[in-house]
Design brief:
The chain has 2 domains: 43 residues; 156 residues, Immunoglobulins (Immunoglobulin-like, Sandwich), CATH 2.60.40.10. It is of the alpha+beta class. A hairpin with a 5-residue loop joins β1 and β2. The protein is 23% helix and 35% strand. Strands 1, 2, 3, 6, 8, 9 and 10 form a 7-stranded antiparallel beta sheet that branches. The protein is built from 4 helices and 13 strands.
């Protein structure tokens, strides 16, 4: 029963009571019967329009809305999250880097190779163009790292810039393999080429590392022989020397040596 039903019943009873005192019992009974019939009719035929049901949110879904919205707001307003987007600085655990440099000027000195095929200074009578390389000695408070897996790559060009010879692995004097390591302060010498009249003889060293022997190294039965690749120098040849860390694929030093033809033979600068 709605509020309107209750109000109608009370009004009917009140009117009946008033009629009873004014006109006698008959009028009161008539009003009372009218009110009772009205209440019955209201109950049978009058129905309040049902209200739209309010959808209930399951408790389990409520946290989902907070989880979805909250991180977006935090990422926009929180300065800590923005700091994480900055590039990461270099890892200091990588240690100091090597610093290679050329010692002096390239020179032509007597060179040759021993019984094991190792090129050295003063062993033979060939005239070799050599270049000394050092991993720098650190200054006070400075650190210089070890240069590992160093190889020598040489590009020979003419005066017009055309590449006329490539040496992918040159010889380190005193080393059987074409790869060496230089600690801080250590030095080594590169054999760039051998001068023979007006020609340059270039040599490739295909061996990466020297062989390791458990006991004494045996003497080879035959003397090794290197066949140089001749290159005639018409006016000048420019040798671009690169010292490369072959494992990292990084050039650590680049130097240019110019070989010029003179009346008394080839000279370097």
């Amino acid at each position: 029963m709605s509020r309107a039903d209750v109000v109608s019943g009370l009004v009917t009873i009140a009117v009946a009571g008033v009629g009873y005192f004014i006109s006698g019992p008959r009028v009161a009974i008539a009003f009372f019967a009218l009110g009772a019939c009205g209440i019955i009719l209201v109950h049978l035929f009058w129905r309040d329009k049902p209200k739209e049901p309010v959808p209930s949110v399951p408790p389990s879904t409520a946290p989902v809305y907070h989880t979805t919205i909250s991180p977006v707001i935090n990422q926009t307003a929180n300065p800590v999250v923005a700091q994480n987007l900055k590039p990461t600085p270099a890892d200091p655990s990588l240690g100091p880097r090597p610093r290679l440099r050329v010692l002096g000027l390239p020179d032509i000195v007597p060179v040759g190779y021993d019984l094991y095929g190792v090129w050295k200074v003063g062993v033979g009578t060939a005239r070799g163009i050599v270049l000394a390389i050092q991993n720098a000695t650190p200054e006070m408070g400075e650190r210089v790292g070890v240069a590992n897996d160093l190889v020598v790559c040489i590009d020979v060009t003419d005066e017009s810039g055309n590449v006329i010879r490539v040496v992918s692995r040159a010889h380190w004097l005193g080393n059987e393999g074409n790869q060496i390591s230089l600690r801080s302060g250590e030095r080594s010498t590169v054999l760039l080429a051998v001068v023979e009249d007006d020609h340059l003889l270039t040599f490739e060293n295909p061996r990466d590392e020297a062989p390791v022997y458990i006991s004494r190294r045996p003497i080879p039965r035959s003397h090794p022989h290197y066949q140089g690749h001749p290159l005639q120098v018409v006016n000048a040849a420019i040798m671009s020397v690169k010292i490369v860390d072959v494992e990292e694929g990084e050039t650590l030093l680049e130097h240019t040596v110019r070989v010029t033809r003179a009346p008394r033979g080839l000279i370097v600068a």
